[in-house]
Prior knowledge:
Blueprint: E1 4-12, E2 21-26, H1 29-38, E3 46-54, E4 63-78, E5 84-99, E6 107-112, H2 126-139, H3 155-165, H4 170-177, H5 182-205
Helix pairs in contact: 2-5, 3-5, 4-5
Amino acid sequence: MTATVALPMFPLGTVLFPTMVLPLHVFEPRYRALIDDCTADGADGEFGVVLIERGSEVGGGDVRTRVGTVARILQVERFDDGRLALAAVGTRRIRIERWLADDPYPRAEVTDWDDVGAAGVGLEEADPLFRRALALAAELGEAPAPLDVELAEDPALATFQIGALAPLGPVDRQALLATEGADERVALLVEQLTDVVELLRARLGG
Length: 206
């Protein structure tokens, strides 16, 4: 049985996937305190990231998703006015079991969530759709990634890469993050990317 642990949480308007880099500009006092605690002596430098379904990143009162990703801090730059610029990387998925008090910053009891049924995943359909979506987005001047981007050799990790780099919105990305495993995730990617390609073609044709 997976252990439940209490973790500092950083709700955002974006979705973080495992293996993806997360740049953050931190200015709100409670999240500056979160980063201070995560980088203190003896701390593991980890916090959770979840998507804000409704509300704002600033000020609280938001509605948060129940599936997120653990981020590990790679680098922090501190400015004289107290602001922080940091880079973190997604490491693993988590389920939110229970939200705790937001004082002094959001915290939650979470459990790690490993992929289910990842062994048979294949990208034969998803990869060319991904490249086509990137090419169409490039024609519109909106390419989110270079056309020759290299995907991870591990197909399960590659599905996370495609989810992060394809021209998808946060709701679609959250749906990918919340799949049971890579087989389900690649099937959903095919559906999402098919729709995206059709939409981009229509925009170019218009």
